[in-house]
Design brief:
The complex is a heterodimer of chains A (109) and B (297). Chain A contains no helices and 8 strands. Chain A is an all-beta fold. Classes of the chains: A mainly beta (109), B mainly alpha (297).
Chain lengths: 109, 297
Amino acid sequence: MSKTSRTIVTMPATAKKGEILEIRIIVQHDMESGFRHTETGQRVPRDIIRDFACTYNGVEVFRVELHPAMGANPLIIFTTVATDTGTLEFKWSGDNGYASSTTSTLTVT
Amino acid sequence: MPPSIYTFQRNALSQTDEASRSNKMPRVNSTNWVGQVFLSCLLGFLAPLGTLLPHKALSQVDPVGVERQSSYMLMSPDTKAMQDEPLLNPATFAVLDGQLLWQELAGKKNQSCASCHGDASVSMKGVAASFPKVNAAGQLLNLEGRINECRTQHQAAPAFTFESKPLLALTAFVSNQSKGMPITVERTTANETALASGERLFNQRMGQLNLSCAQCHAERSGQKLAGNPIPQAHPTAYPIYRLEWQAVGSLERRLRNCMAGVRAEPYAFGSNEFLELELFLAWRARAMPLESPGVRP
């Protein structure tokens, strides 16, 4: 079973060469820790995003490993240096076949 | 977002309401700061004796008019930024889900919300600000109740369960259309009985701790409870994304939190008591702008 969800990327569309870009990225996910129990005492199985990576023109520039202590709808803010015009690809993967990806284009002048 | 959305004019309140309120609950003159400082020092010394003092001596009064404040004002700059910027607000996901549900055909009549109500940004503008409301059948409904009424009567679909994701998503989407608009709940002949019951419930002591809503949220608002400032309990941002919950939740869920906190048995979701209390809270926050969907710590 493959699951996916909404993502929102906030980053500039254009930048000067060498400029530091701030990228904010939020993804919709309950991040069920696996430590909770239902009212009847059943353990709720873990269901979290395990991995997030950003590639810039095919080169990995940022990677995060996520763990059960991360909150729901994880918001990740990171920076990278604008080098060339091209595409940034963001990919999440997680438990139960979770996979999301989105891309943004950046014009470097 | 400009700060103006969280400030409001005293004249936005109707004169009669305010007059009746100030007669009932005379307020310490806020310009008399010397008196206030003296009073707070006195209260500080006497706090351990609090239980021995008559109720009147400790109590402040319910904030009215411009002295009312959204609990937004008590939040950290980070949390404020999270609410103000839709691209950072986790409740945006609920709003977007609600936008899809608005268009989704449902029930035996195969109707969507949009089939009757059309463009929500037009038809739902200001609607959330007028709830809870008494319907034609004389039944008090909050926004969730109104959405479920539409579902069962006009779509012939099963009602959403309380706190279910689709119900919260639709509520968030509809409330979002009234963002920045003042709450328009007023005392009317249709709702005055329910409003009076709501006010009674607000002042009703309950639970093993034997506390009323008013004792914390009216008389001691702005003071600290376990290190956190006590808000004035104005329901201006529901449904909220509460960081503690890691999810979007309704006002009733929040009220159940407080009831569990004073070790009372919480009322059931959708119960009359909650609806009356919600009506009173909305009336108490009348003219304050809606912030839905809010983020709270």
